[in-house]
Write a sequence for this structure.
């Protein structure tokens, strides 16, 4: 509740700051302060159980340790994101304050999507996330690729929104208990009524679209590739994690009792997402596009949480959100400073920027899931949850084999950095970067290692 | 005293400390000396640890356990048992030998080379001591990462591809093992205590031994774990990464892989696989044994036709490891005892072999047998060392490999005589290709490539003398090594029953 209101207010505040304040760097500090405020207030809400804002909500949203922790993680990541990317955001265009404002509106939407208790709130949350994203995607106005991406994203997004509304209508219309609240919908354990089944499939399709799960992933590579890299880094991490959280919450609360009837469907979606994401990522030459496909592959792994839907899955999705977001924001942070976005553009980085190369290696190892990094722990928890669920062990085996394939494309970048040399010595591999920038990259790498060694630092909060 | 320090801790943290020190910019130029110093200290600690055996009084010196992931039931638990002692001793002996033999050789960016080398030692030590499945998995992977960088960065021209093949193979295998570990973990605990509480799941070794698994489950899990360990050892037909990786890596890295890393696979089999899945379909044990024996014969044939000396040794190593894994999977007490003994001796011998070959390659720039010849005239001392080490490699009596090989074949014979006969062929073949190699490389006419060669340096003499000394001492009097690991063998057979 705190996060929803503070983010919304901060969005408006930042919008006006662009009009009244001429100094552009103010918005950066305002945004940072906003995230810190949202983080602290969410932590306080988690500790005391009460929000600062005491509006009658009529149970439209419901908070618990789990979703408050998720929102805290999101805002923690946003602090890192702002620290790292403030300079890049100013480079995108002249309306810097607006970009920040849009990001805060999205954060407000994320908080709603994480705490919704009726399908209406889910819909509002998802829409508040989506609409500013369309704008951010097209924010590089003079770039045709950016325009194309925005239009494509908007059309596909609008389509999936329509499907979601249709699904909501079927669920509310076809439900014999006709409760407005998802935790009271209680559809029983018997055979699903036809309308409910249709509603469920529609919801599944639209949510899969939002988290870019196959076969509804087609927009992802183009949009991620076309959008300005800073915003790709934002929407492929925080926004995607929020999508998964909403997905998990919806299916657990509303359809949890009928898991055996839809689990097969989820299993096949998971498999298809892993297959398509990993296999296509192997063939990419551009690192940005490779990361776009790898984000589909990682989405496949996160689908295991929806598939398993138990206690470990919840812990896993929290860890995965943190681990995957940190590593991806980090690697995109390195990427934005590269002269050349192809894999061979990374050649010889370890010679020219040893510290950056080391941090990039840690990010990539984390995405691969090598022990000692946060990426391993998150994959580990999701694997436990999937094995504990007990159905479809083949899916777990497939998931780890795909993880081994993912080593192939992540390690190509590591190989370029360490074992290959730049074409000539005086060639610039990377734009000059400030010490502060390097410091933040190192900070992210250390965070990844700390979570990798001691993940209960995060998930321990669920037990307190 | 045991509350202040313990040997497992020292084995992990000393190499890590050394590795990190090498990366400090101020100490950049001292990487070699630092790592040599630390590896000698670790050797000292390892020898000292032999006197603090597990008879109650010294227990706290040999076991370390901290709660790690409270809600999962995973501990950071490392400890020394008999085999662990012998393998950590092997690791502690091999590292100073590796660093010492290359002491006069210049390595590019030596600080990272030696830093990574020491970090890999920490990972390897951890694997040999881990008594908790999650710790085991962590160390298992952590040993791999530095070796991957070492082999790729300082390897030959095809090193990047061959090392990556090695990495992906082992990574895929170990991820499958991770699924297996999780599956077993979820079947641990569950026992109800008298006060009504239910024992939680746990990753500890003892909990894994007592996991309630049906025969069918054990059979599947056997396959999953077997794949991971078979790739690591490697057993035929999972060996294809190995000859290229050995050939392309820098020799110190090859030594780490062939002397120590392959032992991770063997250790995995007798500490984790066999005790956990003793009831698995016995056909699987049979298949594993037969595959190992096929590997012996197959690798021996390939070794005979190799012209590249490094690949020859690589294939001969597959044959030796094959014999050990055959004896292990055939599950006769004599054979298992032989494995424990032979693991140590194989490590020493193969390091000696690589050192000699590395000297030849460095002096002549060639690794093709057909282009070498007449080295005995030019480098008599080197020849003497090589001949002794080769005799150990083919397990002649009086050398350290003989008692072990005898026990291995004996164990295999008790299982199935025809398998022992086939495996025995491997021993004969090993004499053929090893002696053939000596004859062509060291005797015969001096060729153009070998005419400028001088004899070996003092540091190489010291290192090779130490190896030859171990070869003879362990060959004449292997009893201390057998005593060291006897308890482990007994324990293995009590757990299975």
């Amino acid at each position: 509740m705190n996060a929803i209101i503070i983010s919304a207010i901060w969005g408006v505040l930042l919008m006006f700051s662009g009009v009244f304040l001429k100094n552009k760097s103010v918005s950066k500090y305002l945004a940072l302060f906003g995230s810190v405020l949202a983080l602290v207030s969410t932590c306080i809400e988690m500790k005391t159980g009460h929000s600062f804002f005491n509006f009658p909500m009529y149970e439209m949203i419901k908070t618990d340790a789990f979703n408050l922790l998720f929102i805290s993680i999101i805002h923690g990541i946003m602090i890192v994101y702002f620290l790292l990317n403030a300079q890049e955001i100013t480079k995108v265009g002249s309306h810097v304050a607006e970009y920040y404002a849009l990001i805060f509106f999205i954060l407000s939407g994320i908080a709603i999507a994480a705490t919704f208790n009726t399908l209406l709130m889910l819909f509002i949350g998802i829409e508040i996330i989506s609409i500013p994203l369309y704008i951010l995607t097209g924010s590089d106005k003079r770039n045709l690729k950016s325009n194309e991406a925005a239009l494509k994203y908007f059309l596909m997004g609008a389509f999936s929104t329509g499907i979601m509304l249709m699904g909501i209508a079927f669920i509310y219309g076809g439900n014999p208990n006709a409760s407005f609240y998802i935790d009271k919908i209680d559809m029983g354990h018997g055979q699903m009524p036809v309308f409910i089944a249709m509603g469920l499939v529609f919801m599944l399709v639209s949510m899969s679209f939002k988290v870019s799960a196959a076969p509804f992933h087609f927009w992802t590579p183009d949009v991620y590739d076309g959008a300005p890299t800073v915003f790709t880094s934002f929407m492929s991490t925080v926004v995607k994690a929020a999508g998964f959280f909403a997905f998990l919450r919806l299916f657990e609360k509303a359809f949890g009792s009928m898991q055996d009837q839809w689990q097969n469907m989820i299993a096949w979606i998971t498999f298809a997402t892993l297959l398509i994401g990993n296999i296509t990522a192997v063939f990419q030459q551009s690192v940005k596009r490779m990361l776009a496909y790898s984000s589909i592959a990682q989405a496949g792994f996160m689908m295991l949480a929806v598939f398993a839907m138990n206690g470990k899955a919840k812990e896993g999705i929290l860890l995965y959100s943190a681990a995957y977001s940190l590593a991806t924001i980090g690697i995109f942070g390195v990427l934005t400073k590269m002269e050349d976005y192809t894999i061979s553009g990374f050649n010889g980085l370890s010679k020219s920027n040893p510290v950056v190369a080391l941090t990039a290696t840690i990010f990539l190892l984390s995405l691969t899931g090598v022990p000692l990094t946060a990426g391993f722990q998150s994959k580990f928890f999701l694997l436990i949850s999937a094995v504990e669920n007990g159905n479809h062990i083949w899916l777990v085996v497939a998931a780890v084999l795909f993880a081994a394939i993912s080593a192939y494309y992540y390690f190509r970048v590591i190989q370029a950095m360490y074992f290959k040399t730049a074409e000539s010595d005086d060639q610039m591999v990377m734009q000059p970067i400030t010490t502060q920038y390097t410091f933040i990259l190192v900070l992210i790498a250390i965070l990844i290692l700390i979570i990798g060694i001691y993940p209960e630092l995060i998930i321990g909060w669920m037990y307190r | 005293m045991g509350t202040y320090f313990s040997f497992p801790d020292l084995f992990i943290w000393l190499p890590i400390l050394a590795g990190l020190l090498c990366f400090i910019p101020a100490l950049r130029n001292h990487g070699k000396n630092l790592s040599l110093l630390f590896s000698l200290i670790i050797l000292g600690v390892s020898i000292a640890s032999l006197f603090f055996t597990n008879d109650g009084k010294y227990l706290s010196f040999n076991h370390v356990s901290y709660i790690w992931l409270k809600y999962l039931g995973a501990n950071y638990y490392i400890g020394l048992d008999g085999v662990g002692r012998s393998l950590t001793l092997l690791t502690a002996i091999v590292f100073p030998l590796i660093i010492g033999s290359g002491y006069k050789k210049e390595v590019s960016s030596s600080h990272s080379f030696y830093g990574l080398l020491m970090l890999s030692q920490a990972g390897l030590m951890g694997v040999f001591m881990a008594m908790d499945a999650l710790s085991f998995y962590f160390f298992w992977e952590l040993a791999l990462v530095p070796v991957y960088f070492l082999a790729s960065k300082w390897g030959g021209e095809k090193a990047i591809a061959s090392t990556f093949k090695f990495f992906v193979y082992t990574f895929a295998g170990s991820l499958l093992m991770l699924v297996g570990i999780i599956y077993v973990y979820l079947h641990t605990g569950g026992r109800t205590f008298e006060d009504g509480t239910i024992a939680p799941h746990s990753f500890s070794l003892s909990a894994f031994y007592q996991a309630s698994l049906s025969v069918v489950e054990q059979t599947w899990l056997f396959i999953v774990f077997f794949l991971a360990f078979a790739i690591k050892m490697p057993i035929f037909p999972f060996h294809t990464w190995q000859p290229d990786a050995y050939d392309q890596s820098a020799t110190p890295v090859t030594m780490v892989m062939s002397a120590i890393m392959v032992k991770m696979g063997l250790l995995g089999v007798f500490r984790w696989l066999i005790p956990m899945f003793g009831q698995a379909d016995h056909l699987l044990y049979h298949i594993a044994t037969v595959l190992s024996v096929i590997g012996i014969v197959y690798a021996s044939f390939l070794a005979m036709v190799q012209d590249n000396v490094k690949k020859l040794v690589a294939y001969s190593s597959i044959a030796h490891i094959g014999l050990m894994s055959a004896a292990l999977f055939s599950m006769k007490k004599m054979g298992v005892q032989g494995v424990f003994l032979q693991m140590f001796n194989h490590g020493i011998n193969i390091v000696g072999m690589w050192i000699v070959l590395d000297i030849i390659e460095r002096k002549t720039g060639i690794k093709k047998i057909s282009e070498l010849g007449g080295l005995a005239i030019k480098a008599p001392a080197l020849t003497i060392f090589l001949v002794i080490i080769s005799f150990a490699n083919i397990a002649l009596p009086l050398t350290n490999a003989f008692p072990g090989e005898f026990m291995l074949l004996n164990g295999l014979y008790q299982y199935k005589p025809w398998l022992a006969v086939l495996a025995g062929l491997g021993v004969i073949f090993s004499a053929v290709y090893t002696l053939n190699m000596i004859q062509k490389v060291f005797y015969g006419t001096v060729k153009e490539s070998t005419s400028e060669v001088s004899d070996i340096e003092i540091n190489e003499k010291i290192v090779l003398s130490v190896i030859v000394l171990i070869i003879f001492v362990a060959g004449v009097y292997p009893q201390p090594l057998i005593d060291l690991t006897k308890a482990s063998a007994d324990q293995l057979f009590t757990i299975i029953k």
